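Appendix C: a fully annotated inverse folding record. The material below is reproduced so that readers can follow the format used throughout the book. The structure is listed first as tokens, followed by the designed sequence.
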């Protein structure tokens, strides 16, 4: 394999398309702060985004390295689960993933320290970024390897849709408020629904190597009910948010996605999670629902702020 092919394989190993979610969630938090009257600091925003993106990219490389055995045992991967497949196919030596994780991960503390130098009153946001990185590494990496203990889904749901917007908010506001938490709460449950849904194709491989996802822990049938319950709770929280300082336009934009959510719940009720041929589309719908909900909140908050 020539240098260009290796470089492209390294990029695919990092699954950069998923970085879009990190940009959207961090931007949501920053927009929430601006909508509350805080002054936008472009330098602080850029440093915080660099820290968030490097944490996310580190996690992708780290997961492929430590999930190698599970990915190798997975005979039913989809575009959304089963890892990047770069290591499994032998396109790069396994150790490249760990080295990439360590190199990319080193950027986050550097960006966080630069943020503290730029603005010493941002101690809270810097501390949160360090917590996010520790938890992100611990999802698959030692010594905790949380995904082998049934804790991978809840930790991911905290770090990605809750802590990431909260970091964006704190970087601009330097103070904690309930608003970004209320705004992010529905996304937490859609993230859980997405993680469990993309776990169906990984069930056999994860179980074979001792990776305790919620699908392995609960079994496919109860996991399907968890997905349905999480989706329902997400939309209930979005509706309730209108009474807790969340602009009505944000809630309405979120609720506009309820037909897609209803279709996903119906498909699970009829047992599509048991059919291998349906796993790809189920996973795609779960990812789309989560991503579109972020977009709906961004658009709704931007529209409300512009008034």
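Designed amino acids, in order:
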């Amino acid at each position: 394999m020539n240098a260009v092919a290796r470089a492209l394989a390294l990029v695919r190993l990092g699954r950069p398309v998923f970085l879009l979610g990190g940009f959207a969630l961090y931007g949501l938090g920053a927009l929430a702060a601006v909508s509350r009257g805080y002054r936008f600091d472009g330098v602080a925003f850029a440093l915080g985004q660099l820290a968030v993106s490097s944490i996310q990219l580190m996690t992708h490389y780290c997961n492929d390295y430590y999930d190698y055995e599970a990915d190798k045992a997975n005979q039913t991967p989809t575009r959304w689960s089963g890892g990047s497949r770069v290591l499994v196919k032998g396109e790069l030596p396994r150790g490249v993933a760990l080295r990439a994780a360590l190199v990319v991960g080193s950027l986050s503390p550097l960006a966080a320290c630069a943020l503290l130098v730029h603005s010493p009153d941002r101690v809270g946001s810097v501390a949160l970024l360090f917590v996010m990185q520790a938890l992100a590494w611990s999802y698959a990496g030692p010594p905790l390897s949380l995904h082998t203990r049934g804790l991978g889904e809840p930790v991911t749901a905290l770090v990605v849709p809750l802590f990431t917007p909260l970091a964006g908010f704190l970087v601009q506001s330097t103070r904690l408020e309930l608003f970004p938490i209320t705004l992010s709460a529905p996304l937490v449950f859609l993230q859980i629904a997405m993680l469990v849904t993309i776990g169906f194709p990984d069930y056999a491989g994860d179980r074979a190597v001792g990776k305790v996802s919620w699908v392995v822990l609960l079994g496919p049938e109860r996991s399907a009910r968890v997905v349905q319950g999480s989706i329902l709770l997400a939309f209930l929280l979005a509706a309730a948010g209108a009474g807790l300082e969340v602009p009505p336009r944000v809630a309405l934009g979120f609720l506009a996605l309820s037909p897609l959510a209803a279709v996903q719940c119906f498909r699970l009720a009829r047992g599509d999670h048991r059919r291998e041929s349906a796993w790809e589309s189920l996973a795609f719908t779960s990812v789309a629902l989560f991503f579109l909900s972020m977009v709906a909140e961004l658009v709704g908050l931007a529209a409300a702020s512009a008034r």
